[in-house]
Amino acid sequence: MGGVSLTLSRAKTAFFSTAIQRVGKTACIRCADAEKYTDLASLDQPGVKVAVNPGGTNEAFDRANLKSATIVLVEDNNAVYQAVLDGTADAMISDLIEVELQVKLHEGQLCIANPDEPFNFEELGYAVPRDIVWKQFVDTWVHMQLGGGSWNQTLEKWLNYKWPSV
Description:
The chain has 166 residues and is α+β, with helices and mostly antiparallel strands.
């Protein structure tokens, strides 16, 4: 039930559904460092290492906003949070919903730096082909799911799913 970040560059080649969730970028950190890393400024310091999977909105955000921290590329998208767990990196910046899932999977080990204030404004939606009839159908479906509460129930189900550890 995930989505992708709505960006202008992506909108050049695809339509997007009505937004399904407001997220914003936030940092996943070790819980032991929760007092140390509380915002973007505390992460953007010499000696701080931020892990990122290359090629997406996370890397674009890091390169635009981190001038003093070291960006550590982790090629395997499934291992990027492991870099934070094992100390190879101090943080991983991603969409709030993704960080929330990792915090649930690694309770007591991983935490969110300031969960109530994401670093930017960002929404997720479904990328759909440039077919206006199909887009209208998807928008109507999203509207019904959000308005009737089904989307939140599905989201809760999958956030609480016992995902395998990678």
